[in-house]
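In line with agreed milestones, the collection of sequences with tokenised folds has grown. One record among many is set out beneath this paragraph:
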Amino acid sequence: MRLRVSAGPRSATYMVEIRRGLLADVGAMVRGKWKIDRVFVLTNTTVHAHWYAALNKALADAGIRCYPMVIGDGERYKNVAVYHRIIGRLAEEHADRQSLLLTLGGGVIGDLGGFVAATYMRGIDLVHVPTTLVAQIDSSIGGKTAIDHARAKNMIGCFYHPRRVLTDPDVLATLPKREFRNGLFEAIKIGLVCNPELHAFIQLGLDKIRGGNKRRIFQMVSRCVREKVKVVDRDPCDRGFRAILNFGHTFGHALETSADYRGLGHGEAVGWGMLLALRLSEHLGYCAGAHVQESYAMIRHLLPQKKRIGENAGRLWQTMLHDKKAVDGRVNFILLKSIGKPIKITVTRRMFNKALDTL
């Protein structure tokens, strides 16, 4: 599947291509668009062990040399110090404004690599090759780049769209079960806010998807990407409508920040965030009924069976006040009127505490 994405009113569009086995053809695809003989590849230690050799071969077969830049695996490496280290490596290798940076990894690598590409010499070309479910269906599309700050996740960043996104769902086969489950939370989010049919497809096929059925996974990735592209096309620079994709993220990001980005996966945090948003939607009278209860039960079942999360309500509330989505001291949540019909609401501390107590 090939989809064209809008990069804003004054910017060129770019393509997202999704195909099983695509990784083997990345070199030919890069060579067909860029007249270059080297590519800088940003990846992490885990992905490097699984997929760098295959990528390197694909590029070498096309006459392109790889310059790998390998960082640790995890959200805690998406910081200013690592950013400076990568910039330094590019400078040492005499990367210029015609250079191409290719990210091979998940959301952390894509966000960090995007920010590097946007700011090195005021912008070099960027290609994403996403290797996690979260990155394939969400973070690689839409041009959001960022590094984290101690006060809040993604506080430092800008919009910088890739020139291409090359997605091979088969690489998901090496994902640990927990990491794949993290991506499922994002897929569920897209279905809940965008398309009831997609939500039903995931819900009914969840066992096959979790069991590694490649056909079902390809279908899920393709359908999620199609919905994400529709939202980005309507709001390329996140000025309003695109906020619906923040469903579950306001509280989720606060949980990640409070945990110092350790021990709690991004998808798991978003899962808890969606549970809270569903409870708020019910308590405020926006939605109720069997469909909402089924969605709540599905998300809760996917989450680790641990004690109730978010005991420090005061600290979490303060973290949300520093979130980039907060405006004039108001905490905004995306809630649901029904599946596929999101609504943006300002939530008070009292509303938040009441909903938190019911998780």
